[in-house]
């Protein structure tokens, strides 16, 4: 799962990044309005942590730009401004939740997981498709009553597919989701093929009722 932190307090930014990476999130960062806006408009995230007061503009303006462009991404506002007006405005514009600074990382993690469950898993702690069940928090994959072993990248990619069944996903989209926003600048995307080959074999060996189908020249989809 991929998180974007838009925050200009360098210590908070770095500490948050290290904490979330230890929790197996892929974390991207931005420290001002222009770079934050560029990322939310060009890349997809499971959750965006958005500070209101950032150099060059307001986090609320980023929310407005996202809404105008119909960029539907989960947003958790982080701000030292704990006024009711800011909170209400942010939620009205499209934020999913609001967390005032200073905060405990345990609460931050709980809020992020709650937002992701509401937006992607309809409130459930598990994600199920056909006979495949994924527990994202404990990083467990089961097919029927069988538990499968996946490495970190394989798990992240399978989870990304399961959130978007039957949707065609381009190779660059998969690379960015699992390896980071600049993966599309790699000389080639052969590493995507090798990961998917491993996932497909594990699904087939476990008699999964779903498979990852290649769409020549474009990408893949879970069917």
From TrEMBL:
Location of the Response regulatory domain: 2-116
Protein name: Response regulator transcription factor
PANTHER family referenced in this protein's UniProt entry, alphabetically: REGULATOR OF RPOS (PTHR48111)
Keyword DNA-binding: yes
Chain ranges of the OmpR/PhoB-type domain: 124-223
PROSITE patterns tied to this protein: OMPR_PHOB (PS51755), RESPONSE_REGULATORY (PS50110)
CDD domains assigned to the protein according to its UniProt record, in alphabetical order: trans_reg_C (cd00383)
Residues bearing the modification 4-aspartylphosphate: 51
Record keywords, A-Z: DNA-binding, Phosphoprotein, Transcription, Transcription regulation, Two-component regulatory system
Domain of life of the source: Bacteria
Residues annotated to bind DNA: 124-223
């Amino acid at each position: 799962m991929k998180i974007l932190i838009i925050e200009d307090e360098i210590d908070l930014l770095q500490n948050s990044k290290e904490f979330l990476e230890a929790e197996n999130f892929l974390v991207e960062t931005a420290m001002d309005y222009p770079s934050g806006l560029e990322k939310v408009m060009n890349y997809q995230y499971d959750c965006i942590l958005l500070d209101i007061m950032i150099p060059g503009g307001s986090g609320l303006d980023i929310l407005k730009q996202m809404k105008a462009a119909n960029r539907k991404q989960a947003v958790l506002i982080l701000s030292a401004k704990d006024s009711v007006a800011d909170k209400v405005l942010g939620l009205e514009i499209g934020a999913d939740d609001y967390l005032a600074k200073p905060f405990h990382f345990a609460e931050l993690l709980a809020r992020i997981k709650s937002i992701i469950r509401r937006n992607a898993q309809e409130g459930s702690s598990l994600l199920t498709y056909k006979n495949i069940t994924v527990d994202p928090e404990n990083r467990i994959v089961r097919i029927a009553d069988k538990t499968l072993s996946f490495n970190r990248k394989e798990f992240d990619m399978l989870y990304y597919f399961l959130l978007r069944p039957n949707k065609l996903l381009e190779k660059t989209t998969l690379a960015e989701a699992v390896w980071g926003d600049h993966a599309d600048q790699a000389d080639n995307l052969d590493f995507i093929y090798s990961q998917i080959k491993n996932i497909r074999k594990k699904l087939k060996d476990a008699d999964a009722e779903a498979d990852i189908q290649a769409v020549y020249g474009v990408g893949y989809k879970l069917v």
